[in-house]
């Protein structure tokens, strides 16, 4: 059975449906991307990360000087300079959502694909990740590291 020729009307209707679908997809994606996170959460490429206000994460002496500690239950990685200067970041890699595994030589390391992030800023040092680790505000009080969000 031969295929009937495509009419001008069919072509224009198909193009209109495709255009409407493209605009609707763009609007939905844009709205989802601009969703504002609630206070008390940090976010990464894979959604909000629960962070509880003034929740104890670790004792300061558990976070190695010039190193770091992954707090698995909270999906947070803590890094520390020479003194009591502690930084908190999401422990979920922005590449494909793998949990980071360690902090070594000034870098937070993701074991899945080798992404490395700066231990003081969360910025990407080596990919394949292209986005930094989201910061998680922390504070040190009486030798204990707490979240502040």
Short description:
The protein is α+β, with helices and mostly antiparallel strands and 149 residues long. The protein has 1 helix and 12 strands; from the N terminus they run αββββββββββββ. A hairpin with a 2-residue loop joins strand 1 and strand 2 (47-50).
Structure in words:
By secondary structure, the protein is an alpha+beta fold. The chain folds into two domains: 1-35; 41-147, Rieske [2Fe-2S] iron-sulphur domain (Rieske Iron-sulfur Protein). Helices cover 17% and strands 32% of the residues. The chain contains one helix and twelve strands, in the order αββββββββββββ. Strands 7-8-9-10 form a four-stranded antiparallel sheet, with no helix packed on it. The longest helix has 26 residues, at 8-33. It is elongated. It starts with 7 loop residues before the first helix and ends with a strand. 25% of the residues are buried. Mean pLDDT is 76; it is low at 34-42 and 44-48.
Write the layout of secondary structure elements.
Layout: H1 8-33, E1 41-44, E2 47-50, E3 56-59, E4 67-71, E5 76-80, E6 86-90, E7 102-104, E8 107-109, E9 116-118, E10 124-126, E11 138-141, E12 144-147
Antiparallel strand pairs: 1-2, 3-12, 4-5, 5-6, 7-8, 8-9, 9-10, 11-12
Cofactor: [2Fe-2S] cluster
Protein name: Cytochrome bc1 complex Rieske iron-sulfur subunit
Keywords: 2Fe-2S, Disulfide bond, Iron, Iron-sulfur, Metal-binding
């Amino acid at each position: 059975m031969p295929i009937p020729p495509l009419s001008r009307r069919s072509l224009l209707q198909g193009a209109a449906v495709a255009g409407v679908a493209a605009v609707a997809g763009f609007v939905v994606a844009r709205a989802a991307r601009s969703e504002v996170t609630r206070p008390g959460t940090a976010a990464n490429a894979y959604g909000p990360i629960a962070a509880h206000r003034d929740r104890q994460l670790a004792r300061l002496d558990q976070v190695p000087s010039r190193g770091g500690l992954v707090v698995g239950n909270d999906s947070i990685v803590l890094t520390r300079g020479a003194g009591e200067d502690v930084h908190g970041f999401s422990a979920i890699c922005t590449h494909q959502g793998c949990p980071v595994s360690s902090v070594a030589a000034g870098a937070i390391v993701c074991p899945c694909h080798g992404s490395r992030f700066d231990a003081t800023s969360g910025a990407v040092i080596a990919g394949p990740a292209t986005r930094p680790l989201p910061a998680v505000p922390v504070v040190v009080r009486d030798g204990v590291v707490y979240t502040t969000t």
